Automatic annotation (TrEMBL):
InterPro entries: Diverse_substr_monoxygenases, Luciferase-like_dom, Luciferase-like_sf, NTA_MOA. Residues 31-380 form the Luciferase-like domain. The keyword Flavoprotein applies. Signal peptide: none annotated. It comes from Streptomyces coacervatus. SUPFAM superfamilies: Bacterial luciferase-like. This is NtaA/DmoA family FMN-dependent monooxygenase. PANTHER family: ALKANESULFONATE MONOOXYGENASE-RELATED, C2H2 FINGER DOMAIN TRANSCRIPTION FACTOR (EUROFUNG)-RELATED.
Length: 437
């Protein structure tokens, strides 16, 4: 049955996240290929462009994760530098936006602004910067400054970093005249001349991820796109309303900031088949070894003697043990342990089953028609402006979504049938930045 396009509906924005070092990617699947070979990046980027996606998104890792003092061998080892990969992808794509995750803690404004402006020029205005922060001394050991940055200072440095980068991008007039720049602030004191004229979209698009109150405020003041994890319709609507209402304080309109949760999608010809596939993916994601690892992250002690098919430990967690390094903290581990124990007791689950149940990550599961309808509902009910799709297989995990879901979104009249503009800002419907010379 063909769904007739409807009028006056919000359009859905889509981006593709390259699968990487996380507990979503299924590296044991025989279809999984290299996360370093350029062919993998090219395949996913070309698929995203074939699907008319807004942008391609790369995460970043500045140090390999460790567990119990050793490099975690259940992770993928090897993480190329994002901007280098995206500059190469600019040559094999024509419309697709190219987003790099780069730390505002372990970089400097002049150097990074220049690298991002270079990508924006080479790609014809398709560059984006996902701003991340860190107070992690473990990662900082790879840098001269080490872990000097207090956690409370990470957003103040990031805000000044973005403002300084924009000052550098604005140091050339729109008609191509270079002008000296000077910035003196709490974190940066620089002056000189920028080497590149204003790029095709004025400034690269700025993306931000963070759910804390300070993160939401930073996004409202600074970002063009917010990458969030809110999965349910109710949670999404609450986050959406909260962040959008903050924009007016900074003289911004609701459309100036796009909210795009990261989602995974599992498809099947029937609802039952999709649920079966989703369950199998979770079993692949949470192997017996990964189940014990997840447990050790919460309990903070060596649990290698425990049977993954046995019950949860009766001992209490050890807070802030540092057993795992380089991975985002899960929050209040004591509260999480109590929640897991209650879940295990209620459903009679083993360690592995509890980790699978508690950590389920698939956001949309069903037939292509059902998934398209649900994605549409999230956007029309103001739970999101679009989605960053996170495949579970590298690099072919996006193929089925593009082939089976995108055409249905187009039939519903909520997704483009061709690219209209040349820049990423035009894809996202963002206003051009005002030159502040």
């Amino acid at each position: 049955m063909t769904v007739r396009p409807r009028t006056s509906l919000k359009k859905i924005h889509l981006a593709a996240h390259f699968p990487g070092v996380n507990n979503t990617t299924v590296w044991a699947d025989p279809r999984s290929k290299s996360q370093i070979d350029f062919s993998s990046f090219e395949h996913l980027a070309r698929t995203a462009e074939r699907g008319l996606f807004d942008f391609f998104f790369l995460a970043e890792g500045l140090r390999l994760r460790e567990h119990k003092g050793r490099i975690h061998d259940l992770d993928v080892v090897g993480r190329p530098e994002s901007l280098t990969v995206l500059n190469a992808l600019a040559a094999v794509t024509e419309h697709l936006g190219l987003a790099a995750t780069v730390s505002a803690t372990f970089n400097e404004p002049y150097e990074l602004a220049r690298r991002l402006a270079t990508l924006d020029h080479l790609s014809g205005g398709r560059a984006a910067w996902n701003v991340v922060t860190s107070s992690d001394a473990f990662t900082g050991e790879n840098f001269r400054r080490g872990g000097f940055l207090d956690r409370a200072d990470r957003y103040t440095r990031a805000a000044e970093f973005v403002a300084t980068a924009r000052q550098l991008w604005d140091s050339w007039t729109p008609d191509g005249v270079p002008r000296p720049f000077a910035h003196r602030g709490e974190h940066f004191d620089i002056a000189g001349e920028f080497t590149l004229p204003r790029s095709p979209q004025g400034h690269p698009v700025v993306i931000q991820a963070g759910d804390s109150d300070e993160g939401r405020e930073f996004a409202a003041a600074t970002a063009d796109v917010v990458f969030t994890r809110h999965g349910s319709l109710a949670a999404g609507r609450s986050f959406y309303a909260d962040v959008k209402r903050r924009l007016a304080k900074y003289g911004r309109n609701p459309g100036d900031l796009k909210i795009m949760p990261g989602v995974t999608v599992v498809l099947g010809d029937t609802a039952a088949e999709a649920q079966d596939r989703a369950a199998e993916i979770r079993r692949q994601q949470v192997s017996p070894q990964n189940a014990i690892l997840a447990l050790e992250q919460i309990w903070g002690v060596d649990l290698s003697s425990y049977d993954p098919d046995g019950p949860l430990p009766e001992i209490d967690p050890v807070a802030d043990s540092g057993i795992t390094q380089g991975r985002t903290r899960r929050g209040d581990t004591v509260a999480i342990a109590e929640k897991w124990r209650a879940l295990s007791k209620e459903k009679g689950l083993s360690i592995r089953q509890t980790v699978i149940e508690a950590g389920a990550r698939q956001s949309f599961i069903g037939t292509p028609e059902a998934v398209a309808a649900e994605l549409d509902e999230f956007v029309q009910k103001d739970a999101a402006d679009g989605f960053i799709v996170q495949p579970v297989i590298t690099p072919s995990g996006l193929d089925e979504f593009v082939d089976r879901v995108v055409p249905l979104l187009q039939e519903r009249g909520v997704f483009r049938t061709e690219y209209q503009g040349a820049t990423l800002r035009s894809h996202l419907g963002l206003p051009d930045p005002v030159w502040r010379g």
